[in-house]
Write a structure and sequence with these properties.
Elements (H helix, E strand, L loop, with lengths): L1 H85 L4 H32 L8 E4 H18 L3 E8 L4 E4 L1 H17 L6 E10 L5 E10 L6 H4 L10 H5 L8 H11 L3 E6 L5 E11 L2 H5 L24 E5 L3 H13 L3 E5 L2 H10 L7 E5 L7 H9 L4 H4 L3 E5 L6 H8 L3 E4 L4 H11 L4
Parallel strand pairs: 2-4, 8-9, 8-10, 10-11, 11-12
Antiparallel strand pairs: 1-3, 3-7, 4-5, 5-7, 6-7
Helix pairs in contact: 1-2, 2-7, 3-4, 4-7, 10-11
Length: 445
Amino acid sequence: MLLVLVIVLSILLVASLAVIFCIKRNSAKQNEDLQSQLEDTKEKLQEALSMANATSDARDLFIKNISYDVRTPLNSIIGFTSLAKKNSEDPQKVREYLGKVDISSESLLNLFNNILDVSRIESGRAILTDEPNDIRKIISRVEERIMPDIRLNSQIYTSDCSGISENTVMCDAHAILEILNNILGNAVKFTPECGRINLTVSQKNSHDNDYINHVFKITDSGIGMSEEFKKKLFLPFEKDEKAKKNGISGSGLGLHITKNLVDMLGGSIEVSSKDLMGTEVVVELPLRKCNKDALSEKPSTSGDNNEAGKAEVKVSGRTKKILLVEDNDLNRELAHEILSEQGYDVVTAINGKEALDAVISSGEGEYDLVLMDIQMPVMDGIEATEKIRKLEDPKKNSIPILAMSANVFENNTEVVKNAGMNGFLSKPIDVSKLADSLKEHIKDE
């Protein structure tokens, strides 16, 4: 009996020791697992902290650069406007000051447009069109933009487009305009007086028979860039120290936008440059060939604009009448003056409700076009347009309506199209684009 008890106690002791051993082993494993989890959590927290610091640094850099780039032209606008007021009796000085205000205003607008472009691209909201366009016309439009500065700097500009065999291709004209304008604009800025700038455009076969590769080569005899700067050439807000020392302005966003647009088009961009020895930029873009159906359509004119002030109102029996709908007093006054100078009879309304009432109570064919702001109190432009389109009178519900808005961040093209509008104009008002749009949509009797 005692022997049995000893055996049972021995078994219980062994079992107890086994349980204790298992508990300790499991506890050790749990400790190891817990330690591993703590290490993983620590690493993730460290990564999150690093990202937060990087975001904070990027934000601070963005604010610093934007503050400088906005205040510089704004200072000129405020200063020269003040001088123009003080010298109002001297027409020559006033013209000179207003010319400098115009240059600074354009610089400020370009900065905001660049910021919007970057935002659209990086948020994935940038959408490229695919329309038939004449590549030579796009190049001509870019040259029109840069020639005033080239003449001002006494630079020598040459171009060779003899390598273009197919003029019309399917592409986004605005994107190509932006790419070439940014690169050629930089060539002009970084090339001294009497320096040389050259553009060569050629076409070559692509591995895809539906596409043809376009090679744009831009060379200049400018100040070039260092190897260190070339490494961060396409990063936003990066500026060469030489540019700062030489007083060359710019937001540092142009080439960042250019690189992104080139990537979106499935192309490539290569930059060769040395200090004081000029720069060469080669952009290669695969653009789709036009099929017979596309060629039968009228090529897009998105790259063409007439010079400001050349638009004229064709009068057939009476002056063309425009209903201008704008809630902001200064914007309404500005648009009224521009339209009146172009020879239009202008009637104003301060919101969509007034515009709707004006159209309803108008005589047959009284208004030739409605220029409609989008964001307004009481009734916005979208709602007003939708109600006008639902009127029973076909003469009134078919009146051309052009949208105006300072909000160019959203995809306004689809919004105004769905509302029944005939087109969209962004603010600030581009006089030449406004004139072209009015001529396009106002029918001559």
